[in-house]
Amino acid sequence: MHLKPIKQKFSVPYEYQLYFTEHLFDVNNQLFKDILDDYKKDSPIKLLFVIDNGVNNHHPKLEASIKNYCEVHKTNLEYTGSIIIEGGECCKNSPNAVETVLKEINDKHIDRHSFVVGIGGGAIIDMVGYAAAIAHRGVKLIRIPTTVLSQNDSAVGVKNSVNIFEKKNFLGTFAPPYAIINDIDFLHTLEQRDWISGIAEAVKVALIKDVSFFNYIELHAEDLKNRKLEPMQYVIYKCAEMHMHHIAQGGDPFESGSSRPLDFGHWAAHKLEQMSNYGLRHGEAVAKGIALDVTYAHLIGLIPEQTLKRIVKVMQAIGFNLYISVSNEKEMNLLLDGIQEFQEHLGGELCITLITDIGEKHDVSSIEYEIMKEAIVTLNNTCQN
């Protein structure tokens, strides 16, 4: 008997919003309650909060404020508890953090109509999102990012992940959150490194998409370095808007193809993070990766020297150290292994995004390793001069 294959096709629309506020868990701020009301009115929704320990330390009243907020609005919100997890890349490197969140989801009877609320930097947001996505094949997630980088980049997309086999984001899911809430109050307590590092993602998206945005960053580089709030608010908003637009309008939200322009500078960044035993912040590594790739772009004739110098000058004015710390040929080759690892992570053919001008991306399918080595030396010489 010959049976014809059964073919079916369906599409599932995804929709979520990014909100901006201040003092989210002040009882007079209705935003959080209203977001949950939009999901279900007139009956309490179970909520499990997962909080970055660094955020908890800098905001010691946060957990009490959350409990009080849920108590005041208990007709709509059922507080089941909160857990404090060590933030930073360590929460993605060890399975213990994911298992802790999964156990709490199980013990607190969080189901598909309940919400996990992740509060913290990009690593916590990634890890909590991964745990929420695999529990019951997906419980609902609200992200409350607390760093510049997570507010303008890592928390606004559809990806969740943890690290394994010494490879960044090897395990992960595509699972859009129900909502993202940026509370600017969390930014006031950031260390200077974390304040600056998130700007790297704004530089990245400006270089590949929008020369006018790069001009704004260039004009306000010193203000950004000096923690001026108004330009930082604009940079976060514009960067997040451009990321979300690319996800929705770029035609490949779940990255089934090879071209990933939002990973400009990231092949080196991921490897530099791993080589530093994650002592480098992600944004610091991205800044170095961008600087390296624009140097390579210059060496192969894609951009003139004046464009390269302009980009490096802006990034240094913001406060980035762009020096690539490789002390010998072995370490240089180890860094270049990141190109192959990036290809494996992409799947299919290698596709590295470079630029032909500020605001003009250009994908290449191969990298000349000897020229990339020259780019490392050239960039380091520039940083030392």
Return the CATH architecture of the largest domain: Up-down Bundle
Tally of contiguous helical segments: 17
Q: What overall geometry do the principal axes of the alpha carbons give?
A: globular
The first-level CATH class name of the largest domain: Mainly Alpha
Q: Give the distance, in angstroms, between the N- and C-terminal Cα atoms.
A: 76 Å
Low-confidence stretches: none
Write down the domain tally.
2
Task: Give the class from helix and strand content and strand pairing.
Answer: alpha/beta
| H-E string | EHEHHEHHEHEHEEEHHHHHHHHHEEH
Can you tell me the CATH superfamily of the largest domain?
Dehydroquinate synthase-like - alpha domain
Helix amount: 40-55%
The whole-angstrom Rg is: 21 Å
Topology:
Layout: E1 17-21, H1 31-39, E2 45-52, H2 53-58, H3 62-72, E3 77-85, H4 90-93, H5 95-107, E4 115-120, H6 122-134, E5 140-145, H7 148-154, E6 159-164, E7 167-174, E8 179-183, H8 192-197, H9 199-209, H10 211-219, H11 221-225, H12 229-249, H13 266-275, H14 282-299, H15 305-318, H16 329-346, E9 352-357, E10 360-364, H17 369-384
Parallel strand pairs: 1-8, 2-3, 2-4, 4-5, 5-8
Antiparallel strand pairs: 6-7, 9-10
Helix pairs in contact: 5-6, 7-9, 7-12, 9-10, 9-12, 9-14, 13-14, 13-16, 14-15, 14-17
